[in-house]
Amino acid sequence: MKKLLNKTLLYYLILSSGVLILSGPCFYFLIEKLYLDDVNEAVLLRRDEFFKKNLPDLKIEEISVWNKFNRDTRILADTVTASKDQIILQIFYDEMVPEWEPYHVLYKNIQVQGKPFVLMIRLNLVESQDLMLTLTWLYLGTLFLLLLANFYITRLISSKLWHPFYDTLQKIEKFNLQHQQVPVFEKVNIIEFEKLNSAVSKLINDIVKAYQIQKEFTENASHELQNPLAIFRNKLDLLLQNTSLNTEQSEIIQSLYQVSGRLSRINKNLLLLSKIENKQFSDTERIDISTIFQQVIPYFKEQALAKNINIVFDKQTTKLYIIANKGLTEILINNLLLNAISHNKENGTVTIVLIDNSLEVCNTSANNALINDIL
Amino acid sequence: MKILIIEDEEEIRESIASYMQTEKYVCEFADTLNIAIDKIVTHDYDCILLDLMLPDGNGLKVLEKIRALNKQDGVIIISANGSLEDKIKGLNIGADDYLAKPFHLSELNARIYSVVRRKKFDSKNLMYYNELEINLQFKVVKVKGKEVLLTRKEFDLLLFLVGSKDMVVSKNAIAEHLSGDMADMMDNIDFVYAHAKNLKKKLTEAGCNNYIKTVYGVGYKFQV
């Protein structure tokens, strides 16, 4: 995952590098052609100049003097084999530099006082390697400058232009349904961001509303079920006052009491489950499991006593901290203990072991242990 | 003794009233918020039973009204919403007790008894039944002037039965009363039998008449 701005920068880097690399050769050939054309023009200009100004009154005995002072326009004996009347590329050794250098050369037959000679006009070309090197450096410099400029522009955009976007993002991230606080977005004068903000606001409002309705439904369901249950139980209480009850009727009443107790428990458990599903227990804190056990165990003494079960809790000083919801953790521990007692045999034991960040609640039973995989 | 039952469910009103009649309580009814407020403004009650979810509003408004009028009526919230937040909210506004539905009438009776006793300044902390003497303040039971050592649960059980004197109290109601918040977890109520047996034994050994009668397998009754 990359940041949006880094990604922009990367695309820009790829794009500008591509453009520069592709345009490099074109640029190189164009410059070279322009330069060579220029050189050729200069060669032809010198030829014309020579023919017009120098050749008409040139004498044979002056040729050696001419050659002495002109490095690039020379008059040679008529022994040159190279092709004439066209500009050709030739390499000469330059003693001044000293290295082999490319030249554009024009050979032309001339007549001095009726005798044939050859005129050579040459012009030194800048080495194409030098040209390429210079161009490369120029291009790299341009690329670097472009990227630098882009980096700062992106940074500027990030802090100014994209600010509302990041602000909105941060507020959405912080939004928690349980706390029911609808975020208030900054006013922006950019259409897209304004649209985004209003869409998100609408979405959040809808969610909050739906969540509220769901919570209310849970409460209503509770109300609807608890009232009939209360009536059921109260009528039993009244029925029990009847003095003419016989044993059989009493037994029926007793089993109805048990049913009413079970119904009430089931209803409460269903409510608890729906509250957990609704994440209404999102408040967490640091809890010591050992302390909860110490608080809870006395309440189970009676249940344990009925079956003569011994609850063993060693190492009570061992602390085991977890980050969780306190109410739910207590319910969990209650359930563990209750099940350990319910599914136990007469004169059995329940052993609670707390070591090395682990909790074990063990019970004795005539039945087989539960299979881990199907839990 | 006058009790106002604010509850929109008729069957619940009737059941409570029917049970309370034997306790010589006079019951009045209100099934909406408005009727309830009219009644508390014009009458005084020893105890008000308040359901929070009423057809025309939240019952907590009645509680606020009572406190605004500076009345001394005892208030017990009987709510279908047994959540802790709801309970804390009700008690904070000034309810004297909170009982979640579904409840046992004997439990409600005990709560009413306790609220009414606390509200009366001349509350007598001693109860006498012939040779049996119960001191509520120090939680001490004496038979013929001699103290009988009871466990906390045995004392609570005795008091619970005495609270619903002459009435049959079911074992389930006793189990829930004795185990408090843990009541929802209990699926085995055999421990009630053990406590009742011990209590009866201790009292009769001290020379007390057997006032605690077993009613078939269903419950117990304190009868002098």
Plain-language structure description:
The complex is a heterodimer of chains A (375) and B (224). Chain A folds into three domains: 4-148, no CATH class; 165-282; 285-374, Heat Shock Protein 90, CATH 3.30.565. Chain A has eight helices and nine strands. Chain A is α+β, with helices and mostly antiparallel strands. In chain A, helix 5 packs antiparallel against helix 6 and helix 7 (289-306) runs parallel beside helix 8. Chain A has a four-stranded antiparallel beta sheet. The model of chain A has no long low-confidence stretch (mean pLDDT 84). Chain A is rod-shaped and about 165 Å long. Chain B is of the alpha/beta class. Chain B folds into two domains: 2-119, 3-Layer(aba) Sandwich (Rossmann fold), CATH 3.40.50; 126-222, Winged helix-like DNA-binding domain superfamily/Winged helix DNA-binding domain (Arc Repressor Mutant, subunit A, Orthogonal Bundle), CATH 1.10.10. Chain B contains eight helices and 14 strands. A five-stranded parallel beta sheet of chain B has the order 2-1-3-6-7, sandwiched between helices. Chain B has a four-stranded antiparallel beta sheet with strand order 8-9-10-11, with no helix packed on it. Chain B has a three-stranded antiparallel beta sheet with strand order 12-14-13. In chain B, a hairpin with a 2-residue loop joins strand 8 and strand 9 (132-135). The relative contact order of chain B is 0.11. The model of chain B has no long low-confidence stretch (mean pLDDT 87). Classes of the chains: A alpha+beta (375), B alpha/beta (224). Chain A: This is histidine kinase. Chain A: One of its GO terms (molecular function) is phosphorelay sensor kinase activity. Chain A: Keywords: Kinase, Membrane, Phosphoprotein, Transferase, Transmembrane, Transmembrane helix.
